[in-house]
Amino acid sequence: MFRKNKFQKLKEYLIEKLLFLFSLVSIFATVGIIAVLSFEAFAFFKEVSLLKFFTDTQWTPLFVKKHFGILPLLCGTLLTTLIAMLIALPVGLISAAYLSEYASEKARNIIKPVMEILAAIPTVVYGYFALLFVTPLLRKCIPGMSGFNSLSSGLVTGTMIIPLISSLSEDAFHAVPMGLREAGYALGSNRMQVSLRIVLPAAFSGVCAACVLAISRAMGETMIVAIAAGQQPRLTLNPLVPVETITAYIVQVIVSYKLRKHFQQVYE
Amino acid sequence: MNKRILNKRLDGLFKVLGILTTVFGMLVLLVLFIDVFLDGASRLSLGFFTSFPSRKPEAAGILSAWVGTLWIMAVTAFIAIPLGIGSAIYLEEYAPKNRLTALIEISIANLAGVPSVIFGLLGLGLFVRWFNLDRSVLAGGLTLAILVLPVIILSTREALRAIPFSIREASYAVGATKWQTVYLQVLPAALGNIMTGVILAMSRAVGETAPLITIGALTYIAFLPQPPAVFSGEFPFIRLSLQGLFDPFTALPIQIFNWVSRPQKGFSVNASAGIIVLLGITLAMNSIAVILRYRQRKKTRW
Amino acid sequence: MKRIMCFMIIAVIACVNQAYAAKLIKVDGSSTVFPITEAVAEEFQKENSGIKVMVGISGTGGGFKRFGRGETDISDASRPIKSKEGDLARENNIEYIELPVAYDGLAVVVNPQNTWVSHLTVKELKKMWEPDAQETVTKWSQIRAGFPDKELRLYGAGTDSGTFDYFTEAICGKSGASRGDFTASEDDNVLVEGVSAEENGLGYFGLAYYEQNKDKLKLVAIDDENDANGKGPVAPAIDTVMDSTYQPLARPIFIYVSVQSAQKEEVAKFVEFYLAHAGQLVKEVGYIPLPDAAYQAALERFKKRVKGSVFGGKGAAIGVKIEDLLKRQK
What we know:
The structure holds 3 protein chains of 3 kinds.
Chain A: H1 8-47, H2 50-55, H3 71-102, H4 105-120, H5 123-141, H6 150-175, H7 178-186, H8 191-202, H9 204-220, H10 223-228, H11 246-255, H12 258-267
Helix pairs in contact in A: 3-6, 3-9, 4-6, 5-6, 6-9, 7-8
Chain B: H1 3-40, H2 46-50, H3 63-94, H4 99-113, H5 116-130, H6 137-161, H7 165-173, H8 178-206, H9 210-214, E1 220-221, E2 229-231, E3 238-240, H10 252-260, H11 265-299
Antiparallel strand pairs in B: 2-3
Chain C: H1 2-16, E1 23-29, H2 34-47, E2 51-55, H3 60-68, E3 74-77, H4 83-91, E4 96-110, E5 119-121, H5 122-129, E6 153-157, H6 162-172, E7 183-185, H7 188-196, E8 201-206, H8 207-211, E9 218-223, H9 238-242, E10 250-258, H10 259-262, H11 265-285, H12 292-303, H13 322-329
Parallel strand pairs in C: 1-2, 1-3, 5-9, 6-7, 6-8
Antiparallel strand pairs in C: 3-10, 4-8, 4-9, 4-10
Helix pairs in contact in C: 2-11, 3-4, 11-12
């Protein structure tokens, strides 16, 4: 099985170099992303001043009255992310506390796979759910709500993120040494006090990491907002009107030709 | 009411709250499944799977969509699995602790967190334009391959790390080279967990819509990419061609997105049916992965 | 295990073997014309399984840009080609044949719950949509005294859309002159969804999209204050478009075929099929068919490969009546 032939050394060397090249692909991919985005950003900022980009309150780059303010799109992204976190954070954390401190082994074995399923559902399915189930339901309760709005897309995005916060926080709670909990119980605390006042602060950095990851996932979410949040860049905090997020705008503009033509001008 | 009783009540309340929040996610999932099933189950038929999309909702089917998904999955798997496993092997077994290695690891961590639509932009700029692949299966597969690469690398590294070092030491002790050790001892032992990670990564790729839309897969496609092996009338009876890789395509999540955007009621039924198929595929893949993981855990006795 | 996999692969290949094809016709452009081209492509592919047709919706402008570079064989357009776009094609040695395929009435719609609007004048539409309205005209009460003080929520075509060029030219006087703060989309389905779920909403798109979603939308009659073609507000319908009383938002829609592509047998077959069946499919989709004589004239034009546009390259041609169109074609 371990026979060596005279080419063994060469073979070993080549294989190692080949695997090294494979791992360089990730660097190339990252560099590629930065390069592609920088090219375009450079061309853009030659025409539009950075100050205007960050302070103008309208985004109408393709119309007669051109405005290039990123604030409306940024606001759309932040609004949906905020609504998502308002749901995901409390539900995820309390659920993690329950799973780690209260739940029996049997319950955990059923709940954890279900949470994984929640996280594995394709986002286009969530988008469908937001547009065709959640929005009509909310419209019945809240009059004057538009068909496209940030509330239902925010709620659904939040639900999608719950497993992320829940499982990562639970891992953080798990890492807290049992001794701390036992000390708390020994002093007469009940489970809620131990969870909230001993375990949670001890696991704080892990929980924070989970939250940051969840926020970044919510901000990068594309399909749910593209389907259900609307296509009108608008600087508003009203969750009942159409807004557009940065990611949805990327999809919308890409489907139209202008961006493709722009790429063509750069590369040909 | 003294403090002890208050605390006891609060504790009970907290427990209830915990149950409610945990159940919330499951409840939403249940509602989603029921809603989709009620809406779309009636549409599932052999005709649905073998018809092309159409302007008439009753006649529209997902043939080009699921074949497109198969093609994309094949290309993605073909590219990402060797690249991912190879990179992970290099990083775990061979890489020296220098700055280049650190850079590689940072790149992988970064890529794992990038939103999927950005991969679409990369695919558009690099594969569609610069490599001149236009909106082809190859461009889509390459884009998705880069998307799942970090996931495969991370899970393979975990799997490799789980193999105790003593196995490798024993192998070196009987005179094997590094590659022989990896290929003949470590890899087979870690294969179960690696496969779990790969299947989970692929199940994520199945549902990705944003990158494929961005490279231009959103059109009316009523044909299939040319299959790689074609039966022809004359010798040698099978003609092999890679032309299919360069054909335009559509995919299951894209077709669903297209149907969801159409306001006619008939299309939302089609979208539900498409979602049932997509969920079926995703859940099947996830279940296989979980079963693999469970069996691997049972088998492994270090 | 391996044997099962091989068998499955061969089985799948054998099954899908039937559906692939080697000839591809690429069409792209207007989302207004899309329903017609999609219907034609579907019927065509039923009869010609060896030919593939691919139809995109990049918008009229977007479609022309791709057409001019030779990336597509046929361009769907909801307005005539502009001279700039024609120049681009000429630079790439592409010559085109202009073929009208239907008449479209641009429908202005509101939500069915909207009780205060039944008709609008062109002047009022201009007040609503002109560039100066951006951020200033935000309430219904600013359009006409007596309208409620509710927020104006607008849905309209995106800038790459021929519908956008046409609407802005017809209503605001200059192609492209529009406010920017509304939900803009080249995909008319998004606009239908938007207006149907927004009580204070108003939108505009091709008549076919209204016809297919009648139960969710309310049509607004347009008064162009020109008694010469029909007194008072007129709603778009087959008869009002055909007798040219629905103005100024009635327009011809086209396909442009590249002469080089027309040399390919499959493209020529497709175009002839298109013109032969357009009369029936156009009506089915919800647009207004041209008179048979017009389709005959178009077929002649194609067979003779008559190049160029009869519209002077200025883009949207406002107020072109069907009889005029017929005369111009000849």
